[in-house]
C-alpha cells in the first residue's frame, strides 16, 4: 500500500501499454521507457509487465504504511527516505512499516520509474493498467496522482532477493538517429538542410503527446495530405515549420508531413529530454535501424 503525501509534477501509473487499439483511436501508450520499468520490476521480483509509477521532473512524497520492497530506475532524482539518507538508485530497497520516500527534482534527465513488489493493483482497461491522460482512463482514476490518494499493491512473492541494475550507457550529446519519413520527398533542400544541420530546443509545452521543438524553420511543399497512421517517434512538420516528435500518448493518425522517424532504440533518450534540452538529428538506413536493439539493462546480485 502507498499513501500519497504530496504529488509530484505528473505521477502516472504505467505498465508496458495497450497495443492493438489504434483502430479505435487509442495509442499503445505505456511507460515512455519500458525497459527501465521492466528493470525496476525485476529488482523487486515482479513480472516485467507489472504496473509502476512514471515520475516526471519533480517527484512525490510517498508513505508505505506496512513497508514494502521498491526500486527506482531511470533518471536520477534528488530523493531521500525517512532517515534523511539519500535513496539508492537502480537497486532493491526494503522499506520498514511507516517509512516515507520523498523525490524532489530530477538531477539529470526527465523521467524515472518506481516499481513496488506486487505491482500497483489498479483495474485494467483495454488490457492495460496504464494511464491515458487525454481520455481520462486507466491508471488511478484516469489521472495523475494527488495528495491523499491510496494505491494498493498486488500479491507478493515471499523472500527478498537484493539486486542491482546496471543502466545502459547514455549518449546524451549525440544526435537522435532517424530514418526517412513517408513524406521526406516533400521537403526541399533548404528544409532538409535546416532539419539535419540545425539544433532545436525542447519547448515547455511538451508532454507525453509530443515534444514540440523550436529552432531552424523546416520548409516543405504545402501539399494537402490525407490522414495517415503515425507512431511514437514520428517527426511531423506543421505549417509553422517547427518539428514535433510524437510521443507515447500522441495521436494514431495525422495530416502533417512526416519528415523522419526516431528509431526505436533511441526512444528511451527521447523519454529523458526536458524543456530547454538541445536536439539534433542524423539519418541512418532502415536496415541499420532494424538491427539496433534497445540497450539492455544488466541485473546482478548485491554483494
Could you explain how this protein is built, in words?
The protein has 303 residues and is mainly β. The chain has two domains: 2-166, no CATH class; 176-291, Cyclophilin. It contains four helices and 22 strands. The protein has helices at residues 34-43, 189-197, 267-271, 286-291, and strands at 2-6, 11-14, 52-56, 61-64, 68-74, 77-81, 93-95, 99-106, 111-116, 150-151, 163-166, 176-180, 200-202, 210-214, 228-229, 234-236, 244-246, 253-254, 258-262, 278-279, 281-283, 298-301. Strand 16 (234-236) and strand 17 (244-246) form a beta hairpin. The protein is elongated, with a radius of gyration of 20 Å. The two termini are 29 Å apart. The model has no long low-confidence stretch (mean pLDDT 93).
